[in-house]
Amino acid sequence: MSERPLQSIIDEAAHWMMRLQSGEIQAEELRAFERWQAGDPRHAQVFQRMAGRLDVVRQPALAQLSERQVIQALNSPSSRRRFIQGSLAVVGAVGVSALGVRLAASGFAWPGELYTGVGERRTLRLEDGSRLTLDARSRVTPQPRGLRLQQGSLLLEASAGDTPFLLQSRAGRAEAQPGRLLLSARENGPVRLTALDGRVRLAGGQWLLPGQTARFAADGSFVVAAASGSESAWLDGRLEVDDRPLGEVIDSLRAYRHGVLRVSPEAAALRTSGLYPLDDSERALQLLARTLPIRIRRYSGLWISIERA
């Protein structure tokens, strides 16, 4: 196969990936997507590689762009091919695994960041001796005596040191004393910080004590309450919720599933309680469908839509 046809297929696959992830695709477009996949075996092969087996972007030129700018570049008909051709390596007839990005696995991760892919939990040791466990699809930027959580969830066992361990997220800064804590900042959910057996100093000098959890609003304000005990269930591959919006549950399941998992605003607002297996997202979806008035539609192996029945 010549170079030009492969570039064209990659261009088309990038277009469909962005349309599917936008959440705005209509039924006729979905049928067109299915026809495109069926039209050539290479179409589905390239699309699935891009959706599920993409590695981390490490191109210097891309490091100057924000994630939003990269997505816009991919979604622009006029620049999509130039972006892909100029920034990503294509090797072999259908060598899409050499594209060098991990778009669907963990978002964009730059050199120096620690990350996990879809369905992956990982434990490692930081330079100061602290122990860090990352949930699936999580990214952190380590610092000499601290870290910044870019997305996902983590368990930190902060070691003793001359200074507190500095935690940063989109909710702001916190200073942890030696001990274990949980921090979560999923894309569509609130930021939550839970002290398990150590203290954490929050903004304004308030202390988060062992057994307490803080839920942060978008403006950085927070509410402290007693921890439920279920915050660490993800370490054992479980999601335990008590009267939480379905949208938050789906956000957690996305970290354990390739492709697009879309939920309508009406369905996302439904409240649910239960125990769901993270390592078997298909089973989790079945359990949700049995207990909630929702309709799950499957348009392809990589695209699922959840609507209120």
UniProtKB/TrEMBL annotation:
Pfam families: DUF4880 (PF16220), FecR (PF04773). Residues 114-201 form the FecR protein domain. It comes from Stutzerimonas kirkiae. PANTHER family: PERIPLASMIC SIGNAL SENSOR AND SIGMA FACTOR ACTIVATOR FECR-RELATED (PTHR30273), PROTEIN FECR (PTHR30273:SF2). This is Iron dicitrate transport regulator FecR. It comes from the Bacteria. GO terms for molecular function: sigma factor antagonist activity. Residues 11-51 form the FecR N-terminal domain.
